[in-house]
Amino acid sequence: MKRLFWQILFALLPLCAAAQTIQSPSGQLTLTFSLDGTRPQYALTYKGRDVILPSHLGLELARDKHASRGMEETDLIDGFAIEKTETSTFDETWQPVWGETRDIRNHYNELAVTLRQAGAGERILVLRFRLYDDGLGFRYEFPSQPDLNYFLIQDERTEFRMTGDHTAWWLPGDYDTQEQQTQESRLSEIRARFHDAVNWGNSSVAVFSPTGVQTALQMRTADGLYINLHEAACVDYATMHLELVDPQTTALTTRLQGASNAYTPPPAPARAPLPPPFTFVSHLTPDATGLKGAMQTPCRSPWRTVIVSDDARDMLSSNLILNLNEPCALDDVSWIHPTKYCGVWWEMIVGKSAWNYTDELPSVQLGLDTPPDFRLAAFDFRRTTPNGRHAANNEKVRRYIDFAARNGLQQVLVEGWNVGWEDWANRWKRDVFDFQTPYPDFDLQGLNDYAHSKGVRLMMHHETSSSTQNYERYLEDAYALMNRYGYDAVKSGYVGDIIPRGDHHYSQSMNNHYLHCVQQAARHHIMVNAHEATRPTGLCRTYPNLVGNESARGTEYEAFGGNRPDHTCILPFTRLQGGPMDYTPGILETQLSTWSDNTSWVRTTVCGQLALYLTMYSPLQMAADLPEHYERPDLAPAFQFIRDVPCDWDDSRYLEAEPADYITVARRQKGSDNWFVGSKCDENGHQTTLKLDFLQPGRTYDATIYTDAPDAHYQHNPKAYNVTRKTVRCGQTLKLTSAPGGGFAVSIIAR
Predict the structure, then answer these.
(1) 285 in Cβ contact with 504 (< 8 Å)
(2) Which helix (H) or strand (E) holds 113?
């Protein structure tokens, strides 16, 4: 009887394989799903123009070494028939806890395709597509079923078949870091440029292919389409990279080698010929065994996203990735608030000060597993000689608190406050910090009391040194300590190779770790800003206490050799697609040698730095320079803009944009009619005609305009700027010039 069923089913395959088509709500995007024989595939068009050519979908599974001998796993790649299709539409408007706009519309048409795999019992796979006016999201869903219960992912085979040799802004594919300079090239040039594009000096590097790139990947076609590939809602799944199939590609994946505990799957069976050039294939981050995922049904993959438009501004205003995430999971969000802060940080990054208290200890032992007689406690540090360079000391922190209180900054970050920094970095050391024991010159109780008396909070810092087991065993006590002293935000860090050894920053297990920390922090009413963690995929909608991530090459690299002037004109198109970045702007003294031995210099003008508070959106913004620089007579007028600019908004308008060239955005302050405008450009400079059409008609505003001086230049005259004031109204026009590597900033305050 069962055999007869399959005979009838395959006789109906031509009918079942008929293309299924849906359009976006406005009709400008069209998705087509079909079976290529028995392999699922999809295609996407925009206003009748091809965006994604027919591209296959599926997953390659690994044999479970714990399964019965001889039991081979069947891949979820082919042998499918369509069991049913369902279409629906959805339209809602929701309000984020914080964001670029007060209201976000979530409007899509959906196609859900249920596939049954022949010869595999009752194995079912659901492909769900959501089509918005600004792009597409789709994912794999695995219902609970007896013949697909526990399974291991060897590779995901999602394809994105491009229509040509597009211009791309890309980072080298890497399992552990995004701290790279973005490359701009044709797709065909990725292989030749790959080696020199890698930041080999990073504390953790694990590239996997000479044509592997990271998401979010921004592209522009020859005929003027902008395409962005990324993912949304990456939960209990490995981070996705993309591997370009070019004429020299001989395999779609590579295997990790050398891990002593690695499980090596059997060789993959022969596949159909590789797709033609300029096809991207998904490439998941492996765990320490080399596998890409361990799943139990019911489960699902993250959404794979394609944002597309013929206007670059739409890339920046898209809410597709946020919309594909689940609604807020927290019942009470009253304690979550956008924050502007300063901190004891930049002087250590530059090299003038130190995180560690003493130079006398070659190593420090801390941890529950350390015998008490050998455990180094705070009193042991009092027996050492301070190095005189430890920045997290009582006197300096009080000065930062006073500075924050005078200038309306809500918090002060202090790095290096806790014992263990003597041998923390690049040691692959398990028991690094306990996140509770301060150095002798840091009065935990006294400094918090002093900050609160000034209306300021201290921001906690947890550098894990990538020892996740150590962090998780102390996590509850560390968060409880924060509650005890009134901290409500933590900056965490994951510098170095992951422990347990052999794992990677972007694996399934690490993604689960990051989310676990955010969830536990929410229980303690703590906001999280994670550095060196996985790149965001919009989870800040579900957990809005995830107020920021780094996960890219930030301002700190200005002290390590510099970022190109176009760097911050690319990041909003790439890294910021999935969520805000703690970029730490506001370095107004751009010549580091004027106050330290560091010979690097910041590759923007002063006004270019001011613009970043608008163009690099984040609800968490740092005034990253030293207080004494902001207080200098030549820089204090520019610092006024940093004091004034908010970091929460009711409305945002992207006025002009081109990847790697320029971005101009106007934002309306939450709960007011005050507007702030920022524009940042690359090394070529830019001319802007700023039309004030976004202002309320009939109302008068006082504008303060911060512009590069006529002779300003990021290389030889970065601190030359002008401040002008004028009365403005809706409909007026301002013509503003940005110097090479510069920009402008405008505050427009309603009367």
Answers:
(1) yes
(2) strand 104-117
Distance CA 625, CA 628 (A): 9
The DSSP code sequence of 246-314 is: -TT---S-------TT---PPPPPP-SPPPPSSEEEEEEPP-TTS-SEEEESSEEPPEEEEEEESSHHH
- When mean pLDDT is compared across 130-134, 377-381, 672-676, the lowest value belongs to 377-381
Token couple for 556: 């700190």
Asked if 476 is an active-site residue, the reply is no
CA–CA distance, 286 with 584 (Å, rounded to integer): 31
Tell me how far apart the alpha carbons of residues 749 and 751 are, in angstroms, rounded to a whole number.
6
Tokens of 608: 């270019």
Which amino acid does the sequence have at 717? Answer: N
Q: How far is CA 653 from CA 642, 649, 663, 675, 707, in A?
A: 20, 11, 11, 10, 20
Among 156, 231, 532, 556, which one carries the catalytic annotation? 556
- Average pLDDT rounded to a whole number, residues 649-654: 98
Task: Check: CB of residue 151 under 8 Å from CB of residue 293.
Answer: no
pLDDT of amino acid 334: 98
Where residue 28 falls among pLDDT bands split at 50, 70, 90? very high
- The torsion angles phi and psi of 42, rounded to 5 degrees, stand at -140, 160
Report DSSP letters for 422-446, one per residue.
GG-TTS--SS---SS-B-TT--HHH
Task: Answer yes or no: are the C-beta atoms of 137 and 124 closer than 8 Å.
Answer: no
Q: Could you tell me which residues come within 8 angstroms of residue 736 by beta carbon, excluding any fewer than 6 positions away?
A: 679, 687, 688, 690, 705, 707, 744
pLDDT score at 708: 98
Model confidence pLDDT, tens digit, residues 172-210: 999 999 999 999 999 999 999 999 999 999 989 999 999
Whether residue 373 has pLDDT greater than 80: no
- What is the longest distance spanned by two Cα atoms in the chain? 89
Nearest to 199 by CA among 214, 216, 218: 214
Residue 109's DSSP bridge partners are 89, 131
pLDDT of res. 699: 97
Tokens standing for residue 630: 């902001």
Q: pLDDT grade, residue 241 (50/70/90)?
A: very high
Closest CA to 678 of 732, 621, 609, 725: 609
- Cα end-to-end span (Å), the chain: 81
Look up residue 76 and give its DSSP letter: B
Beta-carbon contacts of 734 under 8 Å, excluding residues fewer than 6 positions away, are 689, 690, 692, 703, 705, 728, 746
pLDDT band per the 50, 70, 90 thresholds, residue 361: confident
Q: Which residue do the tokens 């022969």 mark?
A: 270
* CB 30 within 8 Å of CB 18: no
Whether 433 and 463 have beta carbons less than 8 Å apart is answered as yes
Beta-carbon contacts of 43 under 8 Å, excluding residues fewer than 6 positions away, are: 31, 32, 50, 52, 53, 54, 55
Average pLDDT score over residue span 281-307? 97
pLDDT over 70, % of the chain: 90
The H or E element that residue 610 is part of is helix 606-615
In three state form, how does the secondary structure of 156-209 look? Answer: ECCEEECCCCCEEEECECECCCCCCCCEEEEHHHHHHHHHHHCCCCCCCCCECC
Q: Evaluate if residue 365 carries a pLDDT over 90.
A: no
